[in-house]
Amino acid sequence: MNQKRVILEGSHFMNGDIACAEGAIAAGCRFFAGYPITPATEIAEHLAQRMLEVGGIYVQMEDEIASMAAVIGASYAGLKAMTATSGPGFSLMQENIGLAVMTEAPCVIVDVMRGGPSTGQPTLPGQQDVMQAKWGSHGDYEIIALAPSSVQEMFNLTIEAFNLSETYRVPAIVLADEVVGHMWEKVAIPPAQKIKIVNRKKANAPSEAYAPFMPDDDLVPPMACFGEGYSFHATGLTHDEHGYPQTSSSEVQQKLVKRLCDKIRKNADKIVRVEEVLLSDADIVVVAYGIVARAALSAVRKARAEGIKAGLLRPITLWPFPENHVAKIAQQTKAIVVPEMNCGQLVREVERAAKETPVTFLSKLGEEPHTPMEIFEAIRRNS
Amino acid sequence: METVMAHPFAKYLREAMMPHIWCSGCGNGIILNCFVQAVDELQMDLNKLVVVSGIGCIGRAAGYVNTNSFHTTHGRPIAFATGIKLANPELEVVIISGDGDLFAIGGNHFIHAARRNIGIKVICANNFNYGMTGGQQGPTTPVEALTTTTPYGNIEHPFNLVHLAAASGATYVARWTTLHVRRLTQSIKKLLQKEGFGFIEVVSPCPEIFGRYNKMRTGLEMMEWFRKVSAIENFSDPAKAEITPERIVVGEFVDIAKISYEKLIHEKIAEINEKKMQW
């Protein structure tokens, strides 16, 4: 087999959706189930061609509910699995995302955000699913969500999402936006052996002694897959370490749900990633993510050129939210500006972490993202 | 004489999950028994067997069998099983679930899995209502039947499940009642050996819930109904097999050969990679 063609390498000009698809292949994803939806369709189209070239499975399901279910099934059968969608489909996936949380199925969900609610504005960008990514399924849980700002990051963070998902046995969401998904940029793909790939911890206990939901010290249980010689039960019901339902035990419910939250909360320092630009002496800090952070960076540079000590804090991990980073800069800065393509979502987290420091929110809806000038004006007004 | 205390099928069940949740007179135990008998007769490799279920009384069956098993969200076992089968075609994936789970909330997945001819096997316990939630009307509830949500009699037309399965493209379609234990077992054996998407409907008594509202208060009375009105007619027209109080046609309806989705996709993968080697 011509390996060179199978796994991409070197510099390529591509859009964000395709970079995401290639990132998945580089991460070792060999199963994609999805349903067409603007502006994420190109991910499915590209993988319909590429998955089979690398010996993987592409299947177009009847809806997003089925896509998410199939992804969990494939994950339990041992493959790294992914789906990609946008707001309406993301809503449909929520119940099964909860199943993936409860059964600790590693999987990646890409949500290329458009304008909502409902059918909204399919071809325009939005950042309106930030809270849905965290709270969309019922019950208490923690999840991982990453927000790419460039086509290169669509590639890199898709790999990162797989690595985190495999490490913590939790669904990881790539929370992109329409601009990042459709924008064309250069992507540099290193040789495969230089890309860090993480695979789930395999079960190593003898099959009689294997308890499928018995965690190690890091709170993550090693994972057996169907057909590997371990006969075990998994269920969306509250279950004990053996996977057996315990629907009336408060002890089991507390132990399980707290562990599912704690495996992310207690490892947050290892998971959280941010980009910090010119923060050390900043009087005013812009907190922005996704495509908006690109405009914010230009605005910060322009402000500096005009003598305003501005800086940028870009959460790459939206969930878990980098609250320590925000709390730290809040103590040293006079004001924070949060531009988002929604009516105020991540800004709530920023306000919570910033405590006394004033936070100005800059909303944008139904059009292209904030311009650098709009953010610059907000910086100037608040400095 | 030596006394053997273990049940010959004990190895197929998870003892830790007992006692089961099913009411006395319920048909689910018969269905599980027939399934286990079929697995035993075929000497199936339990390591390669995955039982998937949705939500409902029979949904607990996945937890009771001592194989790989997954108890999914309501209505989604077929979609979930599709992922398992495509990811590892060596696994035998069997769905044991109820009529509400598979044909109301999960109806769309059923028709599309049958259309694609994914090699998964579906055994549906049809008890004419939602038993676990206390007996509400469902997609198989007979016209005029009383349930907690049709207190004046059901005005919806029920699905004819074997007709739906046949029309959607299933390669094997059969219907039995829990009275037809030997035939059901043989039918499950056949189902497990078929390529592609196969379906068995098992008409099953729910005396505690459905029967209570419809003048069949014991399992025996419900089984008596099955005995009186069921007629074995193999390969009859599934379109004419609607279940009525007067008639339940049972037997095999469809048994055809059709290449499965998983075979086709792996053929494509081989073809693509062969082409690439020629470049």
Can you tell me about this structure?
The complex is a heterodimer of chains A (383) and B (279). By secondary structure, chain A is an alpha/beta fold. Chain A folds into two domains: 3-194, 3-Layer(aba) Sandwich (Rossmann fold); 275-382, Rossmann fold. In chain A, 40% of the residues lie in helices and 22% in strands. Chain A has 14 helices and 16 strands. In chain A, helix 7 links the parallel strand 7 (144-146) and strand 8 (171-177). The model of chain A has no long low-confidence stretch (mean pLDDT 96). By secondary structure, chain B is an alpha/beta fold. Chain B has one domain: Thiamin diphosphate (ThDP)-binding fold, Pyr/PP domains (Rossmann fold). In chain B, 37% of the residues lie in helices and 16% in strands. Chain B has ten helices and eight strands. Chain B has an eight-stranded mixed beta sheet, with helices on both faces. In chain B, helix 2 (61-64) links the parallel strand 1 (49-53) and strand 2 (68-71). The longest helix of chain B is centred in the C-terminal third of the chain and has 18 residues, at 261-278. The N and C termini of chain B lie far apart (73 Å). The model of chain B has no long low-confidence stretch (mean pLDDT 96). The interface between A and B is large, with 50 and 42 residues. Strand 10 (233-235) of chain A pairs parallel with strand 2 (68-71) of chain B.
